[in-house]
Amino acid sequence: MTGVVVRLLRLPHGQGLPLPAYHSEHAAGLDVVAGVAEDAPVELAPGARALIATGFALELPPGFEAQLRPRSGLALKSGVTILNSPGTIDADYRGEVKAMLVNLGSEPFTVRRGMRIAQLVVARVEHVRIEQVSELGGTSRGEGGFGSTG
User: Fold this and answer.
1) In the structure, what pLDDT confidence band is assigned to residue 113 with cuts at 50, 70 and 90?
2) Cα separation of 18 and 12, whole Å?
3) pTM of whole model > 0.85?
4) Which of 12, 24, 55, 114 is most buried, judging by how many CB atoms fall within 10 Å of its CB?
C-alpha cells in the first residue's frame, strides 16, 4: 500500500498499545485507542466530558491535517462521541493527540486502556488567500440558507 507518510512518536504511556490502524480494506479512518493508565480508567457520567490520552504524537507533512472523528459504534451503543468533531490536528502540532470525549448517553461509560475511542483521518488541506470584494457573484440559490434546497 502506498500513501502519505505520517511519522508517529509513541509516548512512554503509550507503550504496548496498538498503533492507529485501518480495520478494513477501504476504511477511511485509522482506529485510535485510549492511552489511559491500566489502573486509572476514566468514568464519564452522563453529560460529562474528558480529554483522553492516546499515547502518541504525530508529524504530519505540510499541506495535511489529521481529523479525529467519533466511532459510529461507540456513539450508537453508548452515546459516547467526540465533542469537537472533527478535532483538527494541524501539521505543525507536535503534542500528544487527545480525544475530547463526551457521554451523551443515559448511563455512565468507562474508558479503559486500549479501548478503541476514535478514528483518525488524514486529509489534504489548501491554504487560501482571502480577497475582500464589494459583492459576490450570483447563483440560483442565492442567500437561501438552512433547508432552502429541500
Assistant:
1) very high
2) 13
3) yes
4) 55
Give the residue carrying C-alpha cell 461507540: 74
Q: What does residue 109 show for φ and ψ, rounded to 5 degrees?
A: -135, 135
Q: Are 33 and 97 in contact (CB under 8 A)?
A: no
Tell me the C-alpha to C-alpha distance, in Å, between residue 125 and each of 8, 56, 61, 93, 128: 20, 22, 11, 15, 10
Q: How far is CA 147 from CA 138, 143, 144, 150, in A?
A: 19, 12, 8, 6
Q: Is 95 helix (H, G, I), strand (E, B) or coil?
A: coil
Determine how β-strand 30-33 pairs with β-strand 42-44: unpaired
Q: How far apart are CA 64 and CA 147, in angstroms?
A: 32
